[in-house]
Specification:
The chain is α/β, with parallel strands linked by helices. Helix content is about 40%, strand content about 15%. The radius of gyration is 19 Å and the shape is globular. The termini are close together. Its EC number is 1.5.1.20.
Length: about 300
């Protein structure tokens, strides 16, 4: 006799501060990393939002196929829409239609993208939003980039004047759209810059929820490589200091310290705009998911095997 395959109901939200912060985490994959995962249901909670990063040069066919596959496994899929690699309005409309028609996508991360020069008509996330195409298509969730440590592409001389102006624009846009919005940050390694930025946003009247980017467990050399390539700001000093400590040099980095500090601030000030964390699995999706589960990330029991 075969047992019925089943999954447990979603567990109650953890009461601990770190577990509470991690209970609805999201995670980012690329088509090539997703292809290495046999079944995301074996690794991630069923509530997980899976972002699909669109790196310059990745064909839209691969992006849509990855979205379709992960969506079919039961996850909320949020593909990137990088303004600087989208050639024109017609291309944007085509991407939206394909994601919706082939993968049932109804949400997206709208960002400028990491290429230095625009390849077409768009150079910023705000221009993509202003087309009105996401609202017209009925997207119910639109996430945008936030920059706790500044962004040299936006403010080449340093500082954050333009970054803050963009945040205020995004706040205004959130009041003109029916879609839910949130600010998603690049990964950081130190809590204080993120917390100080969150306080400055609140003082400026920007109340969008913040999803803080954290790098998942990885070798120190891997993290430093990605951090430099992605323009991580002053919090990079945490890794540099760790690299000088011979006792820690060979140990994998884990984001437990920064996550604990963020969770403690949220517990002390529930109105603080940090809503959840967004994980970058730089050391692998499996190890990242295991770290999250160990520290309170909502877990789902695997399906029972037929016997």
């Amino acid at each position: 006799m075969a047992l019925l395959n089943f999954r447990s109901a979603k567990p109650a939200k953890p009461t601990g501060t770190l577990g509470s912060l991690l209970s609805d985490y999201s995670i980012e994959v690329m088509p090539r990393t997703a292809a290495k995962v046999e079944d995301f249901r074996a690794l991630l909670p069923r509530s997980t939002r899976v972002y699909i990063a669109h790196i310059d040069g990745t064909p839209i066919d691969e992006m849509v196929a990855t979205a379709k596959r992960i969506s079919a496994e039961g996850f909320e899929v949020m593909p990137h829409f990088p303004a600087r690699i989208i050639r024109d309005r017609a291309t944007l409309a085509d991407w939206i239609a394909r994601y919706q028609g082939e993968a049932g996508v109804h949400q997206g991360l709208i960002l400028a993208g990491g290429v230095p020069e625009p390849q077409g008509d768009f150079h910023s996330s705000m221009q993509l939003l202003e087309t009105g195409l996401f609202d017209k298509a009925g997207f119910d969730r639109l996430h945008v980039a936030g920059h706790p440590e500044g962004n040299r592409d936006i403010d080449p001389a340093g500082g954050e004047d333009t970054v803050m102006e963009a945040a205020r624009w995004k706040q205004d846009f959130s009041e003109r759209t029916d879609a839910e919005m949130a600010l998603v940050t690049q990964f950081a390694f130190e809590a204080e810059p993120v917390l100080a930025w969150g306080a400055r946003l609140r003082d400026a009247g920007v109340t969008l929820p913040i999803h803080v980017g954290l790098a998942g467990p990885a070798k120190l050399q891997t993290l430093i490589k990605f951090a430099v390539a992605c323009g991580v700001g002053p919090s990079l000093r945490v890794l540099q200091k760790r690299a000088l400590d011979v006792s820690k040099l060979l140990l994998p980095y884990e984001p437990t310290d920064i996550a604990t500090e963020l969770a403690a601030r949220k517990a002390a000030d529930p109105a603080f705009p940090i809503e959840q964390v967004h994980l970058f699995p730089l050391g692998g999706i499996k190890s990242c998911a295991e770290w999250a589960a160990t520290h309170g990330g909502t877990a789902t029991l695997p399906a029972a095997r037929a016997v």
